[in-house]
Amino acid sequence: MITEDQLDFITNKVKESSISSKEVQDDLIDHFYCLIEEDMNQGMSFEVAYQKAFQQTTPNGFDEIQEEVFFVLNFNKITNMKRITYLTGFISTLGLTLSIVFKSLHLPGASILLFGSIIVTAFLFAPLLLVSHLKSNGTYSPSERMKWIVGAAGFMMLALGSILNMLHLEGSGAVLISGGFLFGFGFLPFLFYTLYKRSIEAVWQKK
Predict the structure, then answer these.
(1) How many other CB atoms are there within 10 angstroms of residue 49's CB atom?
(2) Is 53 within 8 Å of 32 (Cβ atoms)?
(3) Which member of 41, 46, 127, 151 lies 3.0 to 4.6 Å from 187 by CB, making a disulfide possible if both were Cys?
(4) For residue 157, how many C-alpha atoms fall within 13 Å in the half-sphere facing its CB?
């Protein structure tokens, strides 16, 4: 029979985890309680029964449960957001490709097509991609979120500077420099360092 202190231990472990949903916490506590009590009735100690229940229920830690709950609760929103994001990305990329073709062949409308594609890419596709990426990865740390926000802001500033430069407006140089600094030094080093770390970890896992 599980004692009050042991039940408090289970409750505290669950509530100290990254799981934010009260309903999921309560269900998980009940699930742990049933598994542990069943094993203890067969003569197993509480510590061993808890470790066994933990491995059966959350072998990869409580974060995995939180990620699954987040995905289930936001599945429809995430799906619709991704559809709009990648449709917008396709349209903007197609526009940029056609504008290059039009420019190369000296066809009319190339500048308008390029101008419109840059606007759609920078101020529609990039923000949607950022929001979609952050929403589909709900367990990002604040520093990780900031990295992607800085990257998106730098990219948008580069695009804005390009538009201002195309229109021969003042301030284009300052915006381009600021955007280049943000994107080049506030995003790219962290992105490639993360990719490098993951590649090294993948190599070690194969050894």
Answers:
(1) 22
(2) yes
(3) 151
(4) 19
